[in-house]
Amino acid sequence: MGTTSVHGAPAGTPDWPGWPPEAAQRYRDAGHWRDEVFGDLPARQAAARPQAVALVDGDRRWTYSALEADVEVLHRSLHRLGLRRGDRVIVQLPNRAEFVLLWFALQRLGAVPVHALPGHRRHEIAHLARITEAVAYAIPDRHARFDYRPLAADLGADHPSLRHTIVVGDTGGRTGFVPYETLLDPQAPAVTPPGPPVAPGDLALLLLSGGTTGTPKLIPRTHQDYAYNARAAAEVCRLDADSVYLAVLPVAFNFTMSCPGILGTLQAGGTVVLSPSPSPGTALELIEREKVTITAINPPLVPYWLRESEDGRRDLSSLAVLQVGAARLADDLARRIEPTLGCRLQQVFGMAEGLLNLTALDDPGEIVCSTQGRPVSPADEVLVVGRDGTAVPDGHVGELLTRGPYTLRGYYRSPELARTHFTEDGFYRTGDLVRRLPTGHLSVVGRVKEQINRGGEKIDATEVEEHLLAHPGIDSAALVAAPDPELGECSVAFVVCAGPVPGTRELASFLRERGLAAYKAPDRVAAIGRMPLTPVGKTDKNALRERARRADGRA
């Protein structure tokens, strides 16, 4: 775990670097970092609003008093099981109340949840088990037609550190698996304090990087920085005790957890509603039934939500804010949200590594529809730099660098990444290409590694995708590079269409009319039934590049 200072700020650990002492002191003095830990949140809210509804999962409901009671029982049971402060626990649960309850119980114990996503399989989970030396693994029995129990059994055999597998549902009679229900025994003995209390600067959780290459990097987040992340976002969103947040995307996803998400809502004393599926039919039904006021989705879901809501069958009048993030939202699509859904659009641009940008609820409409927001904290430091590392003027495209009170200074147990992912003075290299307005709002242009070099002409894939999505026949679009013997790289547009698929000539004409240079029109067009997604809901461009490569010119 490493050591902490008397104030609870990381004093440097063998597993991950903390903030420099002078920066940590500055964040404390400004009130960004507070002396609070996540394990205390349920008890604190239970004392303030015991009968208010905290959590909804289907027909199951928890008041803050009931939430605190279950968290404390789980805390005692996990201690009896042998878990202790600093132990890492891989949590791979879908959008179920058990994720939230178990998460807070681990926080109270001082154990560290490792956020695995439901779509991860043996390759990713084995990597997490190896890097973290996790002692326990929490799974559902089945989810989305996948049985997690054989996976857990195989991992337990290969990784001796994994002493416990906690199963929500049927264990299938497997020896050594712990049924979650048995941990809810109210007669569990009181916990014997295992040592020093959990400190605000302790490692609270490990998030996974949202990249699409290789195995995920592990992102260390402390109680003080992650709580501030959620609190600052909640302030921009104006959350209060009357707020009802619908968790649509996976709860292990940083966007759903703290932007402001579950944690921001519970800190504000509001209600969290869990959606078992991101399908628009399910989500819109829950919005109507639970009087949801705010929710968050990613851009691929937007066209389907708009289509589902057009018939007016659902009463969505309670919905005040729809957050859209995790990828760039096309401007044309953004402009359709408020007239169709009757709520305010809030664009979100953030990363599990830290920096979070939101459009404000009172920003002008054009800012909301054409930018991805500005930093939520006055202590966020943002640089936009060219290839030579020098700052570029506002309005020009450059790579985004950042540091601040909730942005990591190094990955977990990966010191080799320090040189490639961070500057010498602690700025994180995001790999995002952005354009900054004089107001501080950022417009995301693309990724440094996603530029297509077509015969020497550089094409920003995100720019072209945005225009493709304006075509009335295209529901979803992604532009990737494919090898080309003459150009070096050519561009391939993968599109999802409900009707006829536009060809290259039609798209070239369409893009020309929208003012794009001719070389930016896709060289090839490939129709697919569904866009492949990464476990965090982003378009899986690696899969598309491989598909384009295999097509060998026939896409």
Automatic annotation (TrEMBL):
<protein>
    <submittedName>
        <fullName>AMP-binding protein</fullName>
    </submittedName>
</protein>
<feature type="region of interest" description="Disordered">
    <location>
        <begin position="1"/>
        <end position="23"/>
    </location>
</feature>
<dbReference type="InterPro" id="IPR045851">
    <property type="entry name" value="AMP-bd_C_sf"/>
</dbReference>
<dbReference type="InterPro" id="IPR025110">
    <property type="entry name" value="AMP-bd_C"/>
</dbReference>
<dbReference type="InterPro" id="IPR020845">
    <property type="entry name" value="AMP-binding_CS"/>
</dbReference>
<dbReference type="InterPro" id="IPR050237">
    <property type="entry name" value="ATP-dep_AMP-bd_enzyme"/>
</dbReference>
<dbReference type="InterPro" id="IPR000873">
    <property type="entry name" value="AMP-dep_synth/lig_dom"/>
</dbReference>
<dbReference type="Pfam" id="PF13193">
    <property type="entry name" value="AMP-binding_C"/>
</dbReference>
<feature type="domain" description="AMP-binding enzyme C-terminal">
    <location>
        <begin position="463"/>
        <end position="538"/>
    </location>
</feature>
<feature type="region of interest" description="Disordered">
    <location>
        <begin position="536"/>
        <end position="555"/>
    </location>
</feature>
<feature type="domain" description="AMP-dependent synthetase/ligase">
    <location>
        <begin position="44"/>
        <end position="412"/>
    </location>
</feature>
<feature type="compositionally biased region" description="Basic and acidic residues">
    <location>
        <begin position="538"/>
        <end position="555"/>
    </location>
</feature>
<dbReference type="Pfam" id="PF00501">
    <property type="entry name" value="AMP-binding"/>
</dbReference>
